[in-house]
């Protein structure tokens, strides 16, 4: 198995400020509807691992988590 880190957004901390979406060079971070709210979501398969979203999030809503995948 291989392991990499991917950013995950805590929906309770996300303010949908758009910073992570603007910072992502590959468009992996996008707004999604969550009931009546909008929140950001990072599509792990599109993520290039640059961590720009983590660095620009002023609310601490984005953390890196290990993702394991079978080779």
Describe this structure in words.
18% of the residues are buried. The longest helix is centred in the first third of the chain and has 5 residues, at 19-23. The chain is globular, with a radius of gyration of 12 Å. With 71 residues, it is mostly beta strands. The strands form 2 sheets. A two-stranded antiparallel ribbon has the order 1-4. It has a two-stranded antiparallel sheet with strand order 2-3. It is built from 2 helices and 4 strands, in the order βαββαβ.
The low-pLDDT segments are none
- Rg calculated over all Cα atoms: 12 Å
Element-by-element helix/strand order:
EHEEHE
Number of strands: 4
Strand order in the sheet with the most strands: 1-4
The coarse silhouette is: globular
Largest sheet properties: 2 strands, antiparallel
Would you tell me the structural class of the helices and strands? mainly beta
Taken as a percent bin, the fraction of beta residues is 35-45%
């Amino acid at each position: 198995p291989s392991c990499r880190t991917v950013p995950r957004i805590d929906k309770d901390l996300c303010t949908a400020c758009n910073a992570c979406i603007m910072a992502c060079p590959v468009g992996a971070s996008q707004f999604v509807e969550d009931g009546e709210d909008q929140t950001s979501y990072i599509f792990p398969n599109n993520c290039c691992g640059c961590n720009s979203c983590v660095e620009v999030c002023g609310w601490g809503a984005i953390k890196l988590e290990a993702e394991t995948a079978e080779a």
